Amino acid sequence: MNAFDDIYLKLALANTIKSVDINAVKRDVTPFLKNPQSTEIWSEDYFLDLVGRLL
Length: 55
What we know:
This protein has helices at 3-19, 22-29, 44-54. It is mostly helical. It has one domain. Helix 1 (3-19) packs antiparallel against helix 3 (44-54). The radius of gyration is 13 Å and the shape is elongated.
């Protein structure tokens, strides 16, 4: 993967994260988790921070 691919991937992930209703995702996945409280940290900022650390 080259630098252009890295930038494109980060932008695509960031745009997707910004378009998702994080609270709806939490509601959808919570029934399948052993520790549903683990989703309390989930927010748009949290996932954007993770994307920034990926590459």
